[in-house]
Amino acid sequence: MSVEAFQSIGDRLTLALLSGDFALYRSLIALPMTITPRNGETYILHDEAALREDFDLYHNMLAVSGVTDVFRDVLDVDQSVADKAIVRVMTHIMVNALRVSDPFETRFFLVGAGGHWAIREIESSAEHIDWTLGKASPAFGWV
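User: That's the sequence. What structure does it adopt?
Assistant: Structure tokens below.
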């Protein structure tokens, strides 16, 4: 997987999350998908209903917070196994030109089949994941 290939996935991920386009989001995900908060409790989205619920929570938190962009600066891509890639990025969540939080590291674990890459696992900060689930408010100090 090239940096450019992941940037395309990241751009479509942002578009789906900001616009509420679940079909686009679903096309980027391999189920079951694992969400791993660093120093937190991992959970698995086993089916499309669970994925939809998680997507709706994230989309709503972005909308309520006025987020206008999420961009991911690719730090490195590890594709030591043919149909698997680990992409490490610095994630920036923005409201216009202002950061909602300090940038934070996220790792995406992707699987490939037939030239199509899909996200199998996301590892991010526990604070970010709690925020996307509505468990932390902007007063939490992270945003």
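The first strand starts at residue 29 and ends at 38.
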